[in-house]
Design goal:
Layout (H helix, E strand, L loop, with lengths): L4 H6 L18 H11 L12 H16 L3 E2 L6 E11 L6 E4 L2 E4 L4 E2 L10 E6 L1 E3 L17 E5 L13 H7 L4 E5 L2 H5 L4 H9 L2 E5 L14 E5 L1 H7 L7 H8 L9 E2 L4 E21 L9 E8 L4 E2 L9 E2 L2 H21 L6 E7 L7 H8 L7 E8 L10 E5 L6 H10 L4 E3 L14 H6 L4 E6 L5 H11 L14 H20 L11 H6 L35
Parallel strand pairs: 7-8, 8-9, 9-11, 14-17, 14-18, 18-21, 19-20
Antiparallel strand pairs: 1-13, 2-10, 2-13, 3-4, 3-13, 5-11, 6-13, 7-12, 13-17, 15-16, 19-21
Helix pairs in contact: 2-9, 2-14, 9-14, 11-14
């Protein structure tokens, strides 16, 4: 895509790579304001990934990195390209399942999700089916499922934690053609509300693709999947050793262990997806570490660059979602923290990745891709400090670091804030589970201790935060006309610099606390730190949801 002439102007007059002469960093309210004003300008059209406006924003960030003397950190200069698929079921070609002689339309007693794997081509697959109980490895004993549909119960057996069985992976390993999940009447009462599932599957989906075109880089070997209930389930189990009704009754007994068996009815599954593939970029600058023993360890300071773009169906004259607070303010904070390292004249012992991420608003896509392909070669990412939507409308007196209680990053944040006369407050809205809802969580899933830093609730912060969510969050009014406190922006940038500086210069990398569930789940073999008094041993669980639907990473609100 050819960029407008403005892009060429962005690179004019940049300073050459800096000389490292030590001095005290100066954090400028005017610099923060300048970044936000540019990134939130109407010219950029809301910075949706895959658009020219986002590309302009990416070039702006890379030009700042260049001026600071950083090393390009992407796979293509400053950029790490991410292939993004937008896909949805084709409403003009409804999905269906034919079981024996009966045809069931998608949404009645059978559900399909869209797939980016086959473009706009209609998939029509016919095969025999085999019931494999809970879909565990042992449930396949004595069965031949190659080229067939496997039918498995959703969820996990009694006494087993959710998510412990990779059902599609096991099915694919055994050569199955596709997977059909059986939704029981008990599932419909709680874990799998059918109406909610229909709504989800009809929504457009977005995901990153690997070089072979697989979403999230995962290829279980299956070509199609579906969910069935009710009359479709009755038809599927017709003539089988156990009927659907008998199976449901057996499952009501404690420690039920249903046997596996071949089904009598041939099945045809058909669906068509509409797919658009686009490319966007993570923007990455590297400040190499000075300590030969630690320079191959990397601290990530991240902020998402994208927002919601321009939406012509919005009421009123303004159609542009400028994203001034969400997240031009976070990117500005990251850039000012980065500039402070240059100004200080003192290189950090560890290396630092400064990253402006793409496609957060579509489900943490850019950060998931970076966490999977971290561009550090043989190096290791040891921490992520993520900046997303700091509310820069008041002189904040405290900060909240979502996830601070899970690792030794908590005390680091607390010490950095204290140097500024700011306190570290606990999560004021634990019910929202915000630790799971921004780009840092992609690094958590890769085993990396991480925090998500925002301004706190003291000194009018709670009202400012809640009023912003009510009035401006993901609305066209999130623009530069809001009463920004630019001094607060400089203050927030300095705290983040101090946090990154301590992580980068410490003798020991951040560690999960002993017994913390995130550390135990995602970094089981990594060294742990003793858990201080008051730190929870278990992380809060995800809110009840459609637990078996493959939901994308949730947004913040």
């Amino acid at each position: 895509m050819r960029l407008k002439p403005l892009i060429a102007a962005l690179s004019l007059g940049l300073a050459p790579a800096v000389a490292w002469a030590q001095s005290e960093p100066v954090f400028s309210p005017d610099e923060v304001r300048a970044h936000v004003e540019f990134l939130a300008d109407d010219l950029l059209g809301g910075r949706d990934n895959g658009t020219e406006g986002f590309d302009i924003a990416a070039r702006y960030v890379s030009s700042r990195f260049d001026a600071m003397g950083f090393k390009p950190g992407g796979t293509q200069g400053w950029y790490q390209p991410v292939n993004i698929a937008d896909y949805v079921l084709d409403a003009e070609k409804p999905a269906s399942a034919t079981i024996g002689t009966k045809k069931f339309a998608g949404g009645e007693d059978v559900l399909f999700g869209p797939s980016p794997l086959y473009g706009d081509e209609t998939q029509t697959l016919t095969a025999d089916a085999v019931f494999v109980g809970h879909g565990r490895e042992e449930d396949y004993a004595g069965l031949e499922v190659t080229g067939k549909f496997v039918v498995a119960l959703i969820g996990t057996p009694p006494g087993m934690a959710p998510g412990k069985i990779d059902k599609p992976g096991i099915a694919g390993k055994h050569g199955a053609l596709g997977m059909i999940y059986l939704v029981t009447p008990e599932n419909l009462k709680g874990a799998f509300p059918w109406a909610q599932a229909i709504s989800y599957f009809q929504m457009p989906q977005s995901n990153w693709l690997d070089a072979k075109g697989f979403p999230k880089g995962e290829d279980p070997g299956l070509k199609i999947g579906a969910y069935i209930k009710g009359l479709a389930a009755d038809a599927l189990f017709k003539g089988a050793p156990t009927s659907a009704a008998q199976l449901y009754a057996a499952l009501a007994k404690p420690d039920a262990a249903p046997a596996s068996f071949a089904l009598k009815q041939k099945v045809t599954l058909q669906r068509t997806s509409t797919v658009t593939i686009k490319k966007s970029n993570n923007v990455i600058g590297i400040l190499p570490g000075s300590d030969p023993k630690l320079a191959n360890e990397y601290v990530v300071l991240s902020a998402h660059l994208d927002h919601e773009g321009t939406q012509l169906d919005v009421e009123g004259e303004d159609k542009i979602f400028n994203g001034a607070m969400d997240n031009a303010a976070g990117v500005a904070s990251m850039l000012e923290a980065a500039r402070a390292f240059t100004q200080s004249g003192k290189r950090p012992r560890r290396s630092i990745l400064f990253v402006a991420l793409t496609a957060e608003e579509d489900g943490l896509i850019g950060s998931e891709y970076l966490a999977r392909y971290p561009v550090v070669g043989s190096g290791k990412v040891v921490a992520d400090v993520n900046l997303d939507m700091p509310i820069l409308l008041y002189d904040f007196q405290d900060v909240v670091a979502f996830g601070a209680e899970h690792s030794t990053l908590g005390p680091i944040v607390e010490r950095a804030a204290a140097k500024m006369g700011v306190t570290l407050s606990p999560d004021p809205m634990p019910e929202e589970q915000l630790f799971l809802r921004s780009d840092h969580y992609s690094f958590v899933k890769a085993g990396v201790p991480s925090v998500f830093l925002v301004t706190g609730f003291k000194n009018g912060g709670e009202k400012a935060f809640r009023d912003f969510l009510k009035t401006n969050y993901h609305k066209v009014s999130d623009d530069i006309r809001q009463p920004f406190d630019w001094k607060a922006g400089a203050k927030f940038a300095k705290i983040n610099y101090l946090i990154a500086r301590e992580i980068a210069d410490a003798d020991q990398e951040p560690r999960w606390y002993v017994g913390n569930s995130f550390g135990e789940r995602f970094a089981k073999d990594a060294p742990k730190a003793p858990r201080p008094a008051g730190a929870p041993a278990a992380a809060p669980a995800r809110s009840p949801a459609v637990i078996t639907i493959p939901v994308p990473a949730p947004k913040k609100n």
